[in-house]
Design a protein that fits this description.
By secondary structure, the chain is α+β, with helices and mostly antiparallel strands. Helix content is 40%, strand content 18%. The protein has 20 helices and 20 strands. The strands form five sheets. A seven-stranded mixed beta sheet has the order 15-14-18-17-16-19-20. Strands 6-7-3-10-11 form a five-stranded mixed beta sheet. Helix 1 packs antiparallel against helix 5 and helix 15 packs across helix 19. The radius of gyration is 27 Å and the shape is globular.
């Protein structure tokens, strides 16, 4: 293999980029049409790339066989991972799907081929392939300089990798498949008290007993507290079957991977499994941890978790691996958050005590990227973090979070399309206080919130000059128009957010969940990024909105 890593990480490690070997093919007179066939043997001469790769790029060539109608194919490139929802610096491309011909070697008339250059920068990133919004390949690590061939055969439900770098991608696919197989084969778990509604409902215990004797899926019922927590923390042991099985798959590829590739995939496996355990503990067990367990039990559990931190082989991973691996990042962040809870310290202080340099800055940025919307005093928190994060692109990410969480700025440029096809811009949002309601036309939460909360609020404030604009993010204009009566109201201004405007606004304003309701003043300055937290019922929402924005309504 050819690569170790790329560029220098904080001067700690200088690494060598790859050079693609030029290959040639001896051209002969084309054979008669009747003699063309697909050989089952590999070529003796490799085909050359159609164009040289740019610096920091990878080349992907694909062939797609889809028995259904061809939905849009998208390539998504994430050069820097911070969280699963963020669109920060994510590039989305829609390569042309072309029909092959005899002389390019694509003989199957069902095949559509595509190719694209993935722009990554100076270190490995992630790419996904989506068809109609459905992920066919998701978050595969890709190195600058790699060249990859992939066949996506949806008719046979098969994925194949080829090219000089195929082994690294085949290993990722095999490890992911093994993780999914283990999850499929394992019993599902239900944590419930014996007197819970689901277990006390007549007939449910009989169903549980009946299905225990059938071949197929199985359900295990565990009580909350010690039983379920003990079972969860088994996942931190070195003999965890999930770890052993996935590492066995990785080891089977070891002779085909270079040191950096192997190390990255090991970090993905160990980081992902430990992150899952710690995240479940923090979210579902720690809220009742102090009340449910005695002091000695708490000390034992804390000791077990802290011992797992010490035994986790972070020291075996180089700085390059730690800065790239998304599952290692998730683990390190969860480790920092659990430590902060145990020790009663700030996350900033814990991260600085455990990590240094760019890794510490990335962790701080990832924390805000994942959890800023849940934190109080967001302007203060953002300024605090901006004081201690200086490295690009992490500083830019925090600045983008500031634009999406600190009210007062004017809305970014946008193009909205109304029912008649007319285009509106941010200038058309001036003149009245405006509620912008974002939704998509198959989200039941949006329909319920609009009917039970938002529209009643609008009825109370429309005589005070407030305007309500419904903003659909549907890709299909016909579908959007057909569902307005259910998800909006025909009496309102209904518009569609699409194309580059949609991509830009989703990224800037962190529009990941729906519905989302922004509130603008008369000059199209943002007063609130989402008003849904103002009230838990219709009456309190109206009351708090009227109180909070009294001066604007007057």
């Amino acid at each position: 293999m050819k690569k170790i890593l790329y560029t220098c990480f904080l001067g700690l490690l200088c690494l060598v980029g790859s050079t693609l070997k030029a290959q040639s093919k001896v051209a002969e007179s084309p054979p008669d049409k009747d003699l063309v066939y697909q050989s089952g043997f590999p070529e003796q001469e490799g085909a050359s790339s159609s164009a040289p790769l740019g610096e920091g790029s990878a080349l992907i060539y694909g062939e797609l066989i889809n028995p259904d109608s061809l939905s849009p194919l998208q390539l998504e490139v994430r050069p820097y991972y911070l969280d699963s929802k963020s669109d920060f610096m994510v590039q989305v491309m829609e390569p042309d799907l072309r029909v092959g011909e005899t002389f390019d070697g694509v003989m199957n008339p069902l095949v559509r081929k595509f190719s694209s250059s993935l722009s990554l920068g100076d270190r490995p990133g992630y790419f996904s392939i989506l068809l109609g919004g459905r992920a066919l390949l998701e978050d595969f690590i890709v190195f600058p300089g790699d060249s990859l061939k992939v066949e996506l055969n949806l008719r046979q439900m098969d994925v194949l990798f080829a090219g000089e770098d195929a082994a690294f991608y085949e290993a990722q696919y095999a490890i992911g498949r093994e993780a999914r197989r283990l999850a499929f084969d394992a019993p599902r778990q239900l944590i419930a008290k014996a007197d819970s509604r689901i277990l006390s409902t007549p007939g449910n215990l009989e169903k549980l007993e009946h299905f225990q004797g059938e071949f197929g899926s199985r359900l295990i019922v565990m009580s909350p507290g010690k039983e379920s927590l003990d079972n969860l923390l088994l996942g931190l042991r070195s003999d965890n079957p999930l770890v052993i099985a996935q590492m066995d798959v990785l080891e089977s590829y070891s002779d085909k991977l270079d040191e950096q590739e192997y190390e990255l995939l090991e970090a993905q496996i160990l980081g992902g499994i430990h992150y899952s355990v710690l995240s479940t503990f923090r979210k579902f067990h720690y809220p009742d941890f102090l009340a449910r367990f005695s002091d000695s039990e708490q000390a034992d559990y804390k000791s077990l978790i802290l011992d797992s931190f010490r035994s986790f082989p972070e020291g075996d991973f180089g700085e390059g691996t730690r800065l790239v691996s998304k599952d290692y990042l998730n683990y390190a962040l969860e480790k920092s958050m659990v430590t902060a809870l145990f020790e009663g310290r700030s996350l900033l202080g814990v991260v600085d005590s455990l990590y240094a340099g760019e890794m510490a800055e990335k962790l701080k940025t990832a924390y805000l990227s994942n959890y800023l919307s849940q934190l109080p005093k967001q302007p203060y928190v953002l300024e605090k973090y901006l004081e201690v994060v200086h490295t690009s692109p992490w500083k830019e990410r925090i600045e983008s979070l500031k634009r999406s969480h600190v009210p007062g700025g004017r809305v970014e440029p946008v193009v909205l399309v109304d029912l008649q096809g007319n285009e509106l811009t941010e200038e058309d949002l001036k003149g009245k206080p405006t509620l912008l309601y974002f939704y998509f036309s198959s989200c039941s939460h949006s329909a319920t919130y609009f009917k039970d909360y938002l529209y009643p609020l609008y009825q109370e404030v429309k005589d005070l000059g407030v305007r309500l604009i419904s903003v659909s993010v549907d890709e299909d204009p016909a579908f959007w128009k057909s569902r307005i009566a259910k998800y909006s109201d025909p009496s309102l201004l209904n518009v569609n957010l699409r194309g580059q405007s949609k991509k830009r606004w989703k990224e800037i304003y962190e529009i990941h969940g729906y519905p989302k309701i922004m509130f603008l003043d008369r000059d199209a300055h943002i007063l609130s990024f989402d008003i849904r937290n103002l009230g838990t019922d219709q009456e309190s929402l109206i009351s708090e909105f009227m109180t909070l924005y009294k001066s604007e309504l007057e």
